[in-house]
Fold each of these.
Amino acid sequence: MAVSDPTPDFLKIKNAFRHFATPEGGSVRALDGINLNVASNEFITLLGPSGCGKTTLLNIIAGFERLDSGSILLGGSSLLELPAHQRPVNTVFQSYALFPHLNIGDNVGYGLDVAGVAKKERNRRVSEALEMVGLSGVEKRRPSQLSGGQQQRVALARAIINRPKMLLLDEPLSALDRNLRSKMQIELKNLQSELGICFLFVTHDQEEALTMSDRIVVLNGGKIEQLGTPDEIYHRPASRFVTEFIGESNIFSGRVLESTPEFSRVDLGGAEVICNNPTLSAGEQVSLLIRPEHFHLKAADEPSSSRGLTAVLEQSVFIGRDHQLHCRMGNGQEVSALIRSSFKALQAGQPLTLEYDPAAWHVIPERERVNEVI
Amino acid sequence: MRSFNGQQKQLLVLLTPATLFLSVFFLGPLLIMAVSSFLEPGLYGGVEWSFYPWSYGRVLGWADGFYEEFDIVYLEILLRSAGLALATVAVTLLLCYPVAFWISRMPSRWKSFCIFMIALPFFSSMIIRLYAWILILRDSGFANQILLSLGIIAEPLDLMYSGTAVILGMVYIFVPFMFLPVYSSVENLDPKLIKASQDLGATPFTTFRRVIFPMTLPGVIAGSILVFIPALGNFVVPSMLGGAKVVMIGNLVEQQFLASRNWPFGATLSMIMILFMLLVVSFYLLKVMKKQHAA
Ligand SMILES: Nc1ncnc2c1ncn2[C@@H]1O[C@H](COP(=O)(O)OP(=O)(O)OP(=O)(O)O)[C@@H](O)[C@H]1O
Ligand SMILES: [Mg+2]
């Protein structure tokens, strides 16, 4: 399968709206003005809490659900007029949806069979697809005779055999155990770059989204909260929602005391921190984020600096390589920090200085939502 | 090994009541009937204890030609009955299959209501319900009155006492037997499979042929058998709606026992009907299973 040059705006979703009536007589905005452009070779992830509209968006692209208003273009032509079976996209369903009355070969070959591909070509492509997902020689078995992970691979092979221009994956890994899951994450990512097609991947697992994606779309209540690379989403969240949804975070609200082009001093109510953020102005109220792993404990022989938060250790939890420290500052606010486990034993009740790099602070923008406008 | 034995014992205990019941009330009568079909008819009903294969001869062609004569009409009646039963199966299936899909997509409150409505006729006597059909179908019945008053026909139609009337009555009686198994297989069909089929490029018709139909086939088979068997042996509907014109094998058996008082011949006809049913049903099952394997 030849990898062609990527097209930047391969999938274009413009002002997509979709609402559902609820039995109580109200209505839910499943999609509330979605604007999204996806490149033809991109691994893009829809991430968001349950009910935020991820499946709805996928269903609309696949053709199982209609749009109230808005448009969807794929490769320059509108998708919405085509019935589901004519759309050049394929889906990997959450529960796999393998045909129980067909064996694996016939499941994978289904797309070719309905298209009337000749037997010889069809068989060649079935084994090729199964080989791509690392599952050869199971053609004669039934879906019920395979493990969950194997069924997952069959669903994948079945979806790529028609050589779609885009693959839709609705939480394909959620039924797998942790180890298999991380293995499949890597395989999926490899498969995507091998095929050179666009993967629209749905998950509500932020770790999964951060590992796999070229870009992440964070959805909340049918709106895009933020669209960006995993790095941007993690280190420069655009809203409080994204900050809280992605990763562990410490969020403080404070008032800017002093702002110079080099640094700002912010009062967190009894504690003062220094951060590198030239955009702040004195007197402003801000929300600040610092990730737990950006704190470190100072060894006794290092010189102390003013760039530290003092807090009392309440609990230290061993989580493998690291210790998670739950601390409380003098003003009563909780802080959590992630510290390498090799550090000397810590006791609850012990006062600590959590040191930070002023560049690690991120100012959370106050506007509630950021929608990409095209 | 030990636990397996324990399991076997348990199974034995659990199966005993059903086995006893079936042997006393099903196998017993069947055996009596099989034996009497080879005995000589008594003068006023009952049997004489001597071997007498001529009852079978009457139907199948080796009658002695003296007391008993071969008559092709019995086989004709059997085949005609099978035809009527098959027609009943076909009509009930055509009615129930789409309705099952329709009901399975309803909100659950409506679903229960509709299923209740379909089962409702069971609450009243079959005879009474068939009388209602007589009131509808007879020359001065509702059907003819409506058609006449609408000016569609000038003369009342001869609706009663025909094969069509019998099929109509049997369809009416047997619809629930077809509906319930078909509905349960439709209800169990995962809508995701239909989506998956469409997603892979299948048109609605191909999706029906390759996914929906094969997945609901077990229900269709069960329903067909559940309708075919009682329809083939039914004698109430043909005697009420078919009159003397439409005699089915069930009527023939009834006549032998109650009117002609030739018990062995009635038993013979029953045995032939049972064998015929077994043949048809196993042929059907074999054919379907082969097809399922091939798919
Ligand atoms: N067919 C429908 N009828 C009514 N409401 C619906 C329908 N489909 C979705 N919704 C509603 O639309 C919203 C978005 O649903 P959707 O399935 O897209 O969520 P999701 O992001 O996929 O959630 P999850 O992570 O739980 O799968 C929800 O509030 C849901 O209740
Ligand atoms: Mg979903």
Amino acid sequence: MSTIDAGQIGGYVRNAIFRSCRYTGLKIDTQAQLLIKVNAVAAVIFLLIGGLMGLGVALTRWPAVHLLPADWFYLILTGHGLNLLIFWIIFFEMAVLYFASAVLLNCRMATPRIAWLGFVLMVVGAVMANYAVLRGDSSVMFTAYPPMMAASWFYLALILFVVGALCGVCVFFGTLVIAKAEKTYEGSLPLVTFGALTAAIIAVFTIASGAIILIPTYLWSVGLIANIDPLMYKTIFWAFGHGTQQINIAVQVSIWYLIAALLVGAKPLSEKVSRTAFLMYILFLQLAAAHHLLADPGLSEEWKIVNTSYLMYLAVMGSMIHGMTVPGAIEAAQRRNGFTKGLFGWLRKAPWGNPAFSGMFLSLVLFGFIGGISGVILGTEQLNVLMHNTMYVPGHFHGTVVAGTTLAFMALTYLVLPLIFEREIIWPKLAKWQPYLFGIGVAGISISMMGAGTLGVPRRYWDITLTDAAFAFEFPAAAYLMMGLNGIFALMAALGGGIYIAVTVGTILAGKRLDTKETQPLIFPLHSAGPEAAANYGTSDEAVKLPGTIILVSVFFITFVLYYFVNWKYLSDLWLFS
Amino acid sequence: MSIAPPEQRIWWREPIHKVELGWIVIVFFWGLFMFFFMIAWHFIGNQNLSTETYRIQPSAYVAKVEAFAEKYQVGEENGVPIVRPPAGEDVYLLARKWEWWPILELKKGQSYRFHLSSADWVHGFSLQPTNINISVHPGYEHVINLTPTESGEFGIICNEYCGIGHHLMTGRIRVID
Ligand code: HEM
Ligand SMILES: [Cu+2]
Ligand SMILES: [Cu+2]
């Protein structure tokens, strides 16, 4: 431990206490470390609550089980969306932002007091929202479209949470400023921090939209405003709701680069391409809210087409670039590491037994194949009519935000536990299996939900047998099969999620301490060249051949094109409308 | 390593890997293709959601639908009128908690001006098993030129969550030859 005098920034001087990391040589501000810990722990708690709710939802939608009564179903579905999509993800993202700024830049954290304030606001907001939902008068889903109204608690809770998150984002920006001023790094930001910066910039726009819509809605719920226009609400709500998804993507892609760097020594093929791909997110994502409005009245075709495609698919292009450069960087690094046999020797010899690697790679593949492709299909102006608000929609976003983001966060946790919590993973064998169980389970629920949606099964629906409805309608047997498969894969995903929580909590409470003796090897080692490579690495790998990556992206591209046209075929069979 | 600053300070001058460049070109043109295909479908396709929309008070819309149902009513089922408008006519469907009202009888191959709006909350028109899904907002009257291409009994369900009766909200369109 060493204490150094912090520089003069804004007149406020804090004596930051640093420790130095034995494995990477990075200098870590202990305040930043503590904030990373508390945010990560809060994230895991909300993952547990939301995950249990998710299991309840899936078991109710399994027609043969049909676990919960209708009112409870809608209640926990609201809770499931809030706790996972918002609380789990954003708490974890706060930890990642602090990590990518203070830790990776070897820097002290700006104003930890504000970071703490943000944390407290977020905890209060999240607890209050759960209270509002569990009271039973706010089963409005996380989207809460007016004129349906929740208890005013509900909106207030979300406002507090969002303001808290904004505090965290400000601390991140402040830390970047300090690092620059105190010259804790040379030249440009590292790519991972750059990715986190794009996420933070997007967060500012997004949170602003959230405030613009949530504050009047809160005033409406307490009776101070007479009316909220539903179409206006939906438009602004999704600037917030979809913008947050773009934050998730930027963070998750940064995590892919981070894990690839620490575990196989991968560096980007070219900094220019990877950074430009991040910039595309900032430039085009604000248009994305439109794809939630494709089936709505009153908006022109021109507006829909330009916006839903993020101006000619330029943000989609960003993701497809990362989808190639990340495996490309891994292939290049593995070939340098000596795994040069055949087309896929580099991939076969990758550290598949390390849950950080397997989780990251599964996240990359599942996000692209399931979440990415289905997202473009849903976001196509005309195709949207085929699956708007069907189960296809949750199928799509369990491919993005669960198989992609959540799995990437889980993978990162296996590095955060030894490096930040300084604890050795307990139950390494279980941990090894965890990403596979969770990844395959989530892929299963995503695909079965997409299948059910293609057959017309609606989302957020308690009973597809329509037993009590006035004009019953029979869904095809295949739809029931899909919902049953969804239930079975949900059990698998829940098991994977449960193991993740058990390993994480077990490690934090009872893992062997790594901060006591001299350097000890880790159960899941980092790449041997890790620390040196971090400080001193070669030029970009322009010369290395990447045959494996070429095949991987070709398979992806062909799948994408075929599936795209299959859906146009479905569409052309519908009734005519214009 | 992606966790250290780029080795070349002027990273934007670095050469691009060939594979990267090839992939960028492919995805860029694929993006352009998908973009222009949406536009093209407005000319070559027969499924394009209309944008014709009018502002209307929910109560005024309810009155319109009731007048329409009264004018063309031919029967009743479960207390809901069955309405058979002449081909090519304006057809009105009302979404409200928790029913689609009234029952419509349309003729196959005929085109109708199909009006959709809600009396209360946001609902989701979902025609099954055809699988046409359209959002329905209170205060907005959406007019779609609709041509059924198959005959039979079709179910309407609601696929926008609208409270505890969401899964009870059903309706019927019957298409006759
Ligand atoms: C054990 C793992 C999980 C299972 C079994 C599961 C299952 C489900 C199911 C069956 C639905 C309901 C679809 C419907 O009736 O409309 C759903 C909705 C949803 N899930 Fe999950 N899920 C899981 C994990 C997650 C995670 C980790 C997240 C977020 C990061 C998430 C986010 C959502 C959201 C936002 C909804 C939509 C809620 C709404 O319609 O308002 N889920 N989930
Ligand atoms: Cu409804
Ligand atoms: Cu509904």
Amino acid sequence: MKTVEDLRKLREEVRQMTKLREGEAEVRVVVGMGTCGIAAGARETLGALVQEIAEQGLLSVVVTQTGCLGLCEREPIVEVNAPDGRTLYARVTPERARRILRQHVQGGVAIEDWVIRN
Amino acid sequence: MEELALHILDLAQNCIAAGASEIAITIIEDRAANRLTITVADDGRGMEPEMLQSVTDPFFTTRTTRRVGLGLPLLQAAAELCAGGLTIVSTVGRGTTVRVEFAHDHIDRAPLGSMADTLAAILAVNFEVEVVYRHEVDDRAFVFDSRELREICEGTMQHPKIILWLKEYIALQERLLGGEQ
Ligand SMILES: Nc1ncnc2c1ncn2[C@@H]1O[C@H](COP(=O)(O)OP(=O)(O)O)[C@@H](O)[C@H]1O
Ligand SMILES: [Mg+2]
């Protein structure tokens, strides 16, 4: 089930997929991974993003991380960095992370209730 | 933190912030000696002696005159609560090693938690960092070297599908090892 041979096969699958999708606009989804973020569940949020992107084949979405954002009580914080602008989300549970991917990143509609305004 | 694996993720973030290109994470569970030891070593920029002093100062957390870190004092407090402690060795320009010890059976010790989730989180978003992970339980061990996997993946390692595979692979190996989870 989990052999080097499996990994090689998956590698070839991934290669074929990325070839087909080359050139799509890139959206960056940034997770705050400071101490407060991690304590509030940022690892699970990141894990949910990675899983959803893998399962939905969202190849133009890139997940990255950043450090402490100084908004500890609103962690986990996720920033969606799309061609049309940046949006900062507060208290992003895994469930919210999946919704943000579907509704905002894929659907183009921000989820206003969770957006951090300053 | 609810899991030691989350503290380890937090320590790895320090390594990454210090510009490390390699992070060595070692967990040793010696149940006969009733010890659980975690070391996180990096080849990052290291710390000046004065800095090193301040991050392990027992009164560090009570200082309010300058912005202070939270991660190391938190872990130090967790270790000291469990008949253990935290030590740091650091050399400017060479790197840093954080070592933290707990009594294995201490009632207040957080469980190790998911190292698969922690390692996957590190690998998913850090393209330039190699991770060497070793988990010993008594006389057995599981070793994971991201360089070996990167070689097999031939440039696809960052892909979410590959990261998911690696996470499941590590979780399986950890279960087979039979240590803390
Ligand atoms: N591995 C490391 N290499 C170099 N410097 C480090 C390392 N770990 C910690 N430090 C220094 O110690 C400080 C305190 O760390 P920490 O308690 O984790 O808080 P924070 O990461 O929020 O600053 C860091 O800001 C950094 O300057
Ligand atoms: Mg830190």
